[in-house]
Specification:
The protein is of the alpha+beta class. It contains seven helices and six strands. It has one domain. It is globular, with a radius of gyration of 18 Å.
């Protein structure tokens, strides 16, 4: 999506879910373009927040790294390629919360996936046996996500935006492409609204809500909602 004048709107025609023929969500009316000024303000805020976060997190990261190494074999950081803005791939960073060969063991635990019986593409395994003891604590507190401050500083991500998910969303729903019109976020509307307790359609609905309403002040509102959401731990498996 191009960055033009502030509050420029791009109409979206017939944006609907194709999960069922009988029930489709209403079309998204419009997406508000960042605009040059808003985009610059957002990027400067991202850089400032990421730098502050890195300074504050550095001592804690040393403790987390030691705990991960003592608890299980494998690297401290988990690296995975995910789709970013305009579908450009980037390497997302997280503290490793699973056993070292977790990807190889995925087929063995797929029967535990809570897809609500409708083939939902989001992977939701509440009591995943691949998660380590330290990893469970990191997930509950969302501390496993903090290395993404580096992704934000590099420009791969933003502080607020749609969540960069690991599984391919290719169900014919135009919203799966529209959500990639902006940088993915460390937090966002979906992240503060239940996360893994919800399904893919709900996530896409919240992503469209963010795209229609995003602004610097809307981002601040989401950031303020993130703090209590982290303490509640809803959907943080």
């Amino acid at each position: 999506m191009s960055e033009t004048a502030p509050n420029t709107t791009v109409a979206i025609a017939d944006v609907s879910s194709s999960t069922t023929a009988e029930s489709q969500p209403p079309a998204a009316a419009a997406i508000v373009s960042d605009g040059i000024l808003n985009a610059a303000t957002k990027r400067l805020f991202d850089i400032a927040a990421a730098c502050c976060g890195l300074v504050l997190c550095a001592p804690l990261w040393a403790i987390i790294a030691a705990a991960i190494k003592l608890n299980s074999r494998g690297p401290v950081l988990f690296r995975q390629q995910r789709p970013g803005k305009d579908k450009h791939p980037f390497v997302l960073l997280k503290f490793r919360t699973m056993c070292d060969n977790a990807e190889e063991k995925l087929p063995q635990v797929m029967h535990l996936n809570s897809d609500n019986g409708n083939g939902d593409p989001l992977l939701r395994i509440q009591n995943d046996p691949r998660v380590t003891r330290v990893g469970r604590l990191l997930r509950m507190t969302s501390l496993d996500e903090t290395p993404q401050l580096i992704n934000i500083l590099k420009g791969d991500m933003s502080l607020v935006g749609p969540r960069p998910i690991s599984r391919q969303l290719d169900n014919g729903d135009p919203r799966t492409h529209l959500r990639l019109a902006v940088r993915p976020g460390l937090t966002g509307v979906w992240q503060v609204s239940g996360r893994k307790e919800t399904d893919c359609d709900y996530m896409l609905e919240k992503d469209m809500e963010y795209l229609r309403n995003r602004s610097f002040w809307y981002d601040l509102k989401i950031i303020l909602k993130t703090v209590p959401a982290v303490f509640r731990g809803n959907g943080a498996w």
